[in-house]
Amino acid sequence: MIKPKVGRMFLATCVGSFFILILYFQNISRSASEQISGRNSFPVKSGRSPLQTLQENDQLEQSAVQATLQGRRELLEETCHTHTRKRRVLGPEDLRHLIVDDKHKLLYCYVPKVACTNWKRVMMVLTGNGRYREPLAIPANEAHVAGNLRSLSEYSTAEINKRLRTYLKFVFVREPFERLVSAYRNKFTRSYNTAFHKRYGTKIIRRHRADPQAEALEKGNDVSFEEFVYYLVDPQTQREEPFNEHWERVHSLCHPCLIHYDVVGKYETLAQDSRYILKLAGAEGEVKFPATSKSTRTTGDMAAKFFDNISPFYQKKLFNLYRMDFLLFNYSVPGYLKLR
């Protein structure tokens, strides 16, 4: 009785996922006449979607922001073509990180530790029908509540394909090791993150600390960065379960070699890239992307200090683990690494 139902669901998933692959190749083969051009301040014509605005801008002179974003997209496509040999089927679980705004025709793939709290707040304003007006007035924990925003995985196969074909798809990325150190600092050095300490800290200490104290085994609240690295590169870790989203690789969360992203924003240029996306959506009058505080953010210099106690052997293993994110999004090998 159950088998036919499962079979039909699998077929629907495969059909929808196969369309995703077709969409990607259709997008990367667009003619030069469809590539973006025009100055950064442009009107959004009535009935025009953000994707149409991106592809069919009437003005001819390309702005610096547009040129940068086009370069990122082309490099991503080229790197995918060079380094990706196998094409796999995407299922609904692969689309959970894609947030949908049907009003403005946007698809946003959120990546933890890359301003995703503020972008979720912005998406709540855009999709809230007037319920929210100011992003920073939305509590951070509310921005992460399941159900406040719709995921692409919640739609039918036909609805998924339509949105992938016609909506503007964007993602924000960050230097991989700065993001990793940021995740470690937030989840393992903050006293209030007891859930992470219990869920992951106790396991890391039990497996990667010699002669752990009983209190550490119980609370898991004093994991060192070195122990965290051992946990990440341990093959047993991913055999047991997928990485937590806060340290999962961007290419595994958002599948940029299977889904064609129209805009690849970067944490390093967060403000200008966010403004550009909101202009494409015709939403700059509805919401402003919040200014971020730089006093506590994880920088490259800060990340370098965390790697001081990591041996070259484990530095290389960790780099190999995150290598595709460095390649896909054009981040240089950090100068503080000793890979030779």
TrEMBL record:
<keyword id="KW-0472">Membrane</keyword>
<protein>
    <recommendedName>
        <fullName>Carbohydrate sulfotransferase</fullName>
        <ecNumber>2.8.2.-</ecNumber>
    </recommendedName>
</protein>
<keyword id="KW-0808">Transferase</keyword>
<comment type="similarity">
    <text>Belongs to the sulfotransferase 2 family.</text>
</comment>
<keyword id="KW-0735">Signal-anchor</keyword>
<dbReference type="GO" id="GO:0000139">
    <property type="term" value="C:Golgi membrane"/>
</dbReference>
<keyword id="KW-0812">Transmembrane</keyword>
<dbReference type="GO" id="GO:0030166">
    <property type="term" value="P:proteoglycan biosynthetic process"/>
</dbReference>
<keyword id="KW-0325">Glycoprotein</keyword>
<keyword id="KW-0119">Carbohydrate metabolism</keyword>
<dbReference type="GO" id="GO:0008146">
    <property type="term" value="F:sulfotransferase activity"/>
</dbReference>
<dbReference type="Pfam" id="PF03567">
    <property type="entry name" value="Sulfotransfer_2"/>
</dbReference>
<dbReference type="InterPro" id="IPR005331">
    <property type="entry name" value="Sulfotransferase"/>
</dbReference>
<keyword id="KW-0333">Golgi apparatus</keyword>
<keyword id="KW-1133">Transmembrane helix</keyword>
<dbReference type="GO" id="GO:0016051">
    <property type="term" value="P:carbohydrate biosynthetic process"/>
</dbReference>
<dbReference type="InterPro" id="IPR018011">
    <property type="entry name" value="Carb_sulfotrans_8-10"/>
</dbReference>
